[in-house]
Write a structure and sequence with these properties.
Layout lengths: L12 E2 L2 E2 L1 H12 L17 H9 L3 H9 L4 H11 L5 H13 L7 H10 L11 H8 L11
Antiparallel strand pairs: 1-2
Amino acid sequence: MAEVEGLRSGYAKVGGLVYFGRMLDKIRLSDQGQLPLSYNLGDQNPIFFDGVCCRFLGVEYQRIVNQVRAGHSDEEILEWAYEAGKRPSAEEVRHWNSSMTKCGWRDQSTASLNRWKRQLGLENRTDVQTFFDLYDADEGREIPPSCAP
């Protein structure tokens, strides 16, 4: 289990958006040398959630990093991203949250999710149905029952 103090669940919202806060936590922990090397960080791979989040907001990942390093709060960074990139509509946020919270559940990512479950020894966990569930289970958090697909 990779209990990483200071790393929130992907389900946690900042300004109504899931995952955004987790991305900021990963940047902060990486800068402190406390993010495990096995964690995906940044936008080097187009399927990594950090890059997906930045593309959704229309901002470059490194510019988000710069905002974090400047000491801004999560809410200030999100507002900056809306101004520097794009401010999604309420409907776009709903779609983002729905898509992100279900990633790995009966979609093109299911095989990858199952591979990760095996690697982490979670293959018998029937409650781990999405990548957010995988993060929570691996990091020692309860999977929120209301978040199950």
